[in-house]
Fold each of these.
Amino acid sequence: MTMRRRFHLGSDTSGAAAAEMALILPLVLTMMFATFEGAWYLVCEHRVIKGVRDAARYAARLDRSQFTCPGNAFTGSTATIQNLARTGKLTGGNAQVPNWVNGDVTVTVSCATAIGGIYNSTGGNAPRVTVRTQFAYPSMMQALGFTQATVQIGAAAQSPVIGL
């Protein structure tokens, strides 16, 4: 009878599935949340890159009189360019990425010299506009209490000013 009971206890698997689930669940949850976080990072990065490119293209089509070469100055409204980068709209709208503000977007002008063609009226100086941004990545895990904010999202786009 004792041998039978030992054999019966060794083949009992009623709690095996629960034990395996308890062992594998942390790994599965970690992989799942890492996948979600990675996908969210790529979405945010894509939105930032697209916004900066659109803003640089828009700024490049502004009237050339708003750009001073030499002098690397822009006399137009940077707020419109900043808002376009963040929201995709010239005025109003919501940021494409949470916590992205106009102050995170910079608009600078540089001048290339000895360029002919359409730039002859500006003394051969060709203005180039650069739109750049960098800010803290808004992690999805912040909602779960993970507040490590060392990851940055940044992008830059440059376009020659053609004007309209």
Amino acid sequence: MKKIAVIVGHNPIKQGALSIAPIGRSEFDFNSELAQLMLAKSSTYSFEIAIFYREYQKSYYKEIQKVYAEVDAWDADFSTELHFNSAVFTALGSEVLSSGSRKSMLFAQKTQNELVTLFDRTGKTDRGVKVRKKGARGYRSLVAGKAAAIIVEPFFGSNRQDVQQMYTLGLEQLAEAYLRAIEQL
């Protein structure tokens, strides 16, 4: 049985971006609930999920090394780190970040396909799979562990249209999209 590590992005001290209303939550709070939903719904799928939380370490590098060492100790086959984007209010869309390895790219594309379907993304709102190079934001999470890793950015918490659409869809729909992508691995 495949083992999938679900890492909640950020931590209780540095919670990441804050989404505008009607979500009005930090990445950490939003994705903590999402991870729990994924775990609860995973029993009907043919894989095992475990949730991992990043712990504030005063050093991003140490924080990432610690959580991915825990993922390695659990012997995960794949890992997904849960986030959402934030930028200027006009930016919107879904994207998945990959290390560029074969398994990471496979996982990233399956996940992006599910996000595109869920959010009905077309044109520029399908931001695609993006390979992170050394030194780029998110790179460390993608290469710190042994498991093929991705980072998911399903919507922009700074964009009114994206936030309203995510709010209308609900966390359960997003959890199911992620689980469907994992099932295809």
Amino acid sequence: MRSVYSLCITLCLALPSIGLAQPLQTKLVSELLFYPEYRFSAEVEPRSVTTISAKINAELIEFVVKSGEEIPAGQVLARLNCEDLHDQLELNQANQQELQANLRLAQFQFDRLNALQGRQLTSDSTVDESLARKQALEAQSSALKIQAKLAQRAISRCEIRAPFRGVVRETFAGVGQWLTVGAPLLSFTQLEGAELAVQLPLSLYQSNEFGALMSTAVLKQEGQVIPLQDWRLAKQVEPQSKMMTVWFRAPKNLFIGQQTQIHFTHTAPFLPAGVLVQRNGQVGVFVVENQQVNFIALDDAQMGRPAKWPSDWLSKPHVKIVVDGQLRLQSGDSLTESP
């Protein structure tokens, strides 16, 4: 009965003009294989967005930069009114000058009394009092020097500078406003070290090809293909969507907040879904060898989806696969292929 069935199919294929069957069509596997590409939306995220605050109590007198302007590290962003601090520093310097004069006098008196004590011309208590006065003046001198350092440090905070190369996103104060320590002044976004954030399905991460896929990540812009490197993986999954976030180092020509797409290319070849058939609960393809068709089941293949070509068949690029007419075939059928 089987030979009659095979003979009937052979005659129908050999004589397509009779119209009993569609011509059988095959293609080399090398012509069918392709590498699937995945595209996922991504957004450029800054490494840091910081709120810069006032470090002293003072009046805001000037914003040096504007929102959206690119600022190099160390550039002045805003200036505060520090006249009081400058006056305090000048007063400190005057006090130090006066104290130094008193300290020189105290040192001279101590040296003189110490010499007289050696000749027993003065009492020990007088020398001790002179020494105590000199030491007290020295302590006052040290305190004034520390106060001067504090004043100079406060004055240095009158000019608020960029902590890194970035851009001003938003300002929170106006010129003439009195600022207290910790009052937010502006929001500053870091430009260096920006990353591309992309959400990928957890199932993709759990596949054996995840690491290989990450190595193929590219951006395609204006005809250019830009490889992406230095990726890192979030150690958490969104419970509802089952998505996870991966960050890549962003190319310098992208803007913070820019939306784009990252392309991943599968490193293993696949067959198109249209050539797949199902036999005995398995999904696979019919291959032609020596004018005979044989069914090859493909692991993890599903109808309607491209299927991964077995790695042990990659060395057989000249194998022919039935691409039209395979639905009526059975494994082992002997066929005459139509032109």
